[in-house]
Amino acid sequence: MMTTSTRNISRQHKSTHRGIRNFSHFFSGSFRTAPFKSACPSFSSNCRTRTLHHEWIVDGKVYKAENYQPGGNEKRETIIFLHGLLGNNKNLRTPAKKLTKDNPNFHALMMDLRGHGASPAAGIVPYSSSSPLSSSSSLSSSHEYSHPTINNCANDVIHTVQALNLTGSSSPIGIVGHSFGGRCALTYHHTLCTTGDVNVDTDKETVVNPPQHCFILDSVPGMAHASVDHVLRAIESVPIPIASKKDLVQFLTQDQNVSKAIAHWMTTNLRSYDDQSASTSSGNKGGFEFTFDMSVARGVLDDFPQQDMLLMIRDCVSVSDADSINRTIHKIMASKTGAWTDEMVDELEEIQSDYFDDRLKLVTLDAGHWVHIDDLEGLMVALRAGFDR
Question: Which of 18, 61, 251, 291 would staple 32 via disulfide (CB 3.0–4.6 Å)?
């Protein structure tokens, strides 16, 4: 069920267990701890491509990037979807399919963020030296840009959008991000709203315009819970290659005190080990590895407390208000996580009261952290209400 009331959110589920067995409040999707496949002919963690790996969803159907060309005979508005930490572009397929099937004027751009799915851990090559972001402090050097920070992950998204020629009047009208993806979505929105170069560029058709709608799905300000680090350490200790899914469950539950539910979830994030010359601990050839880059996960987690989400939200709504531009941030909060404090909710409501109501929408869903699973219909109501405006 969806409600716009936030007053009681931080008082609900105070008994929620915060230990390791509930670490999933902060994650979404599949894990990677080993090098993954990329667009490079021979994988290197330093190999950088021109775009993040992505796919499209059109009329509820999934298309590989090479099989779909945006901007053809049918003009469609682009909505970007960004998965959560340790996830991939498949995580938000269901709401994207529903939204594009309901409205054939939309198509969804589903991206793998840096170090996730099939996108390189080192990020992508900035679109061009004349990019609106080329002079920003976050891109002051190639070395700094290779760091796995939220800013750099969001810049990857912007450069991908530029490389796909989704600029000017073809700029994405919306961005939807879950958890870590919500942090990246907010940074994307904030960068495009506040970067001076974007607003003064003489060729408006080469600039990525800020989206009209930015949906942030249960991205809680501050640092991740300590239980996340415990689980990551458990994953790091898994002997790779691991012989079987059964062996993985046994190792995580018996040796690392990880719950069976989480251990079984981890088995969905395995792939065949690339180096067939290696032997597993049992002496068998082959085995499995995780589909996740640990260095990116570590870097991003370290960056969580550096992002002042509430200040960024205030910046975005104040710029939109001053420019009299119809842009809205939709903050979706899950009531069952116990993560939202009175202070967080109070500040959000204060920001909302300081500006026109349509600059910041606060929506509470009767759901756990995975709002797109626990309350899909409530989320769809919020998405439709926003994009139908």
Answer: 291
Secondary structure class of 338 (helix, strand, coil): coil
Give the whole-angstrom CA distance, residue 387 versus residue 360: 14
Strand order in the sheet with 106-111: 2-3, 360-365, 328-334, 213-217, 174-178, 77-82, 106-111, 54-58, 61-64
Predicted confidence band at 172 (pLDDT cuts at 50, 70, 90)?
very high
Q: Decide: 123 and 136 in contact? Cβ < 8 Å.
A: no
The pTM for the full model equals 0.82
- Give buried/exposed letters for 158-184 (b at 16+ CB in 10 A, else e): bbbbbbbebbeebbbbbbbbbbbbbbb
In this structure, what DSSP letter does residue 129 have? Answer: T
Q: How far apart are CA 128 and CA 346, in angstroms?
A: 42
171 vs 17: CA distance, rounded Å: 42
Check residues 47 and 216 and name the one with the higher pLDDT. Answer: 216
Q: What is the pLDDT of residues 92-133, one digit of tens each?
A: 999 999 999 999 999 999 999 998 888 988 888 776 644 545
The tokens 């936030």 sit on which residue?
6
Task: Please say whether the beta carbons of 238 and 270 come within 8 A.
Answer: no
